[in-house]
Write a structure and sequence with these properties.
This protein has about 130 residues and is of the alpha+beta class. It has three helices and five strands, in the order E-H-H-E-E-E-E-H.
């Protein structure tokens, strides 16, 4: 299952050289993850309200391969690599056309509202596969 999230690079996303500032790739992949979760049917607000579970980034391993520039049309591709009881590992690539500009492996964990690790409910794990 690959989820595609389209975005355009705005002036505010770039640095003085007109290329995307490195930290903004993390914002791009965060937006894509939020839309992926929503599109597979998980309401994060409801999950927090009903089960007291929130998602948090535990680890990001990122490779910056080629710069994106102002006005580029990009696609963030998100796909699950591994889903365990309390952890989700995702592959996220930012592409311009077929060229991968940024690639990340992101580990997401489930936490209680107090910040302690918790298991994902079974129905949520099934949605993530």
């Amino acid at each position: 299952m690959v989820h595609n999230f389209e975005l355009r690079v705005y002036y505010e996303d770039t640095d003085l050289a007109g290329i995307v500032y490195y930290a903004n790739y993390l914002k791009f992949i965060e937006r894509a993850r939020t839309e992926w979760v929503r599109d597979i049917g998980i309401d994060q607000t409801e999950l927090k309200a009903s089960d007291g579970i929130v998602f948090a980034v535990r680890r990001v391993e990122a490779d910056y391969l080629s710069p994106a520039k102002f006005d580029d049309e990009l696609v963030v591709q998100t796909s699950p690599v591994q889903v365990t009881g309390a952890r989700i590992v995702l592959q996220q690539d930012v592409k311009r056309g077929q060229e991968v500009l940024f690639s990340a492996v992101v580990t997401i964990v489930a936490l209680s509202e107090t910040g302690h690790p918790v298991r994902l409910p079974g129905n949520i794990r099934l949605m993530l596969h």
